[in-house]
Specification:
Shape: elongated
Helix content: 25-40%
Oligomer: single chain
CATH topology of the largest domain: Protein Transport Mog1p, Chain A
Number of strands: 15
Strand content: 25-35%
Length: about 300
C-alpha cells in the first residue's frame, strides 16, 4: 500500500510539473521566492519580519479587494515595512505581488492604473504620485507607499522601486497581443487585459481592450485569444446569440457582424483563426467608419494568430 501511494505521489508530482511547463498550471510562490527581491537601502532597515500571503490568506491583508487579484491568478504577496531606525516606526511599505505571468501582472496593474497620472520609466510601466509608486515588471506587480512628506517621499519610493528592479533579472515587456491593435487614435494608458469574464461572459477569457478617440469617433476595440480556430468559432456563435438585445437581430456586414447591446451599444465582431476581435460603444451612425477600423485590425491579425 505504501509503495502504491509513493508511486501515485511521484506520478501526481510529475503531472503537475508537466502542466506547469505547458503554462496550464501555476505553482504558488513561497516567501523564499520573494525575499531575494527585497532591497537593501542605505539608512533604511526592515522594521519587522516581512509578512507573506498566499491565495488562501490574501483577504487578511486586502479584504474586499482580494477577489480582483485572485481573478488574475495571484500566487503570493510579500509585504515589508521599512524604517530609518532598526525596529523604528515604519515609514515605507513595499508590496511584491507574484502574479505568475507577465500578462497577469499587467492585467491587475491595468485594472488599478488611473488613465491620467505621473507615469515614469520603471519596470515596464509605472506611475509615481505623493509617495506612492506602482509598476509592473515581468510577473510581478510592485506597490510602494512612503509616509514621508513631499519630494522626500517620492524620492524614497523611487529609490526602493529601482532597487527592486535590479533584483529581477528580466524586465519583460508589454503583452504581445497589444501590438496588434492599430496605433492611431489610442487613448494613452487605456490598454487593459481581462483574465476572466471578459465583457461579463463567464466563457470569455484572455481579453485585451483598448480605448480610441479621434476627431470623428470614440470607441473601444478588443481582442480575445482562444485556444484554437475551432474554439474561436464556437465562442463566436455563442456571442452572436448572447450579445444582441432581446428582439434585435444580428446583422451580417461585409464578413463581420453588427449587434446592438444594452451595455456595449453598437458592437461589431469578427474572427481570424484563433482570435475574436471587434469594436464596441461605436457611434450609431458610423457604420462605414466601423468597417474601416475592423479592416485595419484584420490586417494585423495574421501575425498575431501565429503566436497561439
Amino acid at each position: 500500500m505504501i509503495r502504491k501511494r509513493k508511486r501515485w505521489l511521484v506520478f501526481f508530482s510529475w503531472f503537475i510539473l508537466a502542466l506547469a511547463a505547458q503554462g496550464d498550471v501555476l505553482l504558488a510562490s513561497k516567501p523564499s521566492d520573494l525575499k531575494p527581491l527585497l532591497p537593501v537601502v542605505n539608512n533604511w532597515s526592515l522594521s519587522t519580519e516581512p509578512d507573506f500571503y498566499d491565495p488562501e490568506t490574501l483577504f487578511e491583508y486586502i479584504d474586499g479587494a482580494s477577489e480582483a487579484y485572485l481573478a488574475y491568478d495571484f500566487q503570493g504577496l510579500l509585504v515589508a515595512q521599512y524604517s530609518r531606525e532598526k525596529g523604528g516606526e515604519p515609514l515605507l511599505t513595499l508590496e511584491i505581488y507574484d502574479m505568475g505571468r507577465l500578462e497577469n501582472a499587467f492585467g491587475i496593474y491595468s485594472a488599478e492604473r488611473p488613465q491620467e497620472a505621473n507615469f515614469i520609466n520603471i519596470g515596464v510601466e509605472g506611475y509615481l504620485e505623493e509617495g506612492s509608486l506602482d509598476f509592473f515588471i515581468n510577473r510581478y506587480y510592485i506597490k510602494i507607499l512612503c509616509f514621508l512628506e513631499g519630494k522626500e517621499a517620492n524620492d524614497a519610493a523611487l529609490l526602493f522601486g529601482q532597487e527592486v528592479v535590479k533584483r529581477i533579472p528580466e524586465r519583460g515587456s508589454w503583452p504581445t497581443l497589444l501590438a496588434f491593435f492599430p496605433r492611431q487614435g489610442i487613448v494613452p494608458h487605456s490598454q487593459k487585459f481581462i483574465r476572466r469574464n471578459f465583457l461579463g461572459f463567464s466563457y470569455l477569457s484572455h481579453g485585451y481592450q483598448v480605448s480610441y478617440k479621434t476627431d470623428a469617433v470614440s470607441f473601444e476595440a478588443f481582442l480575445i485569444q482562444t485556444k484554437d480556430a475551432e474554439e474561436a468559432e464556437v465562442i463566436e456563435k455563442r456571442l452572436l446569440e448572447d450579445l444582441p438585445n432581446v428582439g434585435e437581430p444580428v446583422k451580417p456586414l461585409n464578413g463581420y457582424f453588427h449587434a446592438e447591446n444594452k451595455y456595449f451599444q453598437h458592437i461589431y465582431l469578427g474572427r481570424w483563426q484563433s482570435i475574436i476581435y471587434g469594436l464596441m460603444r461605436f457611434p450609431a451612425a458610423e457604420e462605414k467608419a466601423a468597417l474601416t477600423w475592423l479592416t485595419e485590425m484584420k490586417k494585423l491579425l495574421p501575425a498575431a494568430a501565429k503566436l497561439n
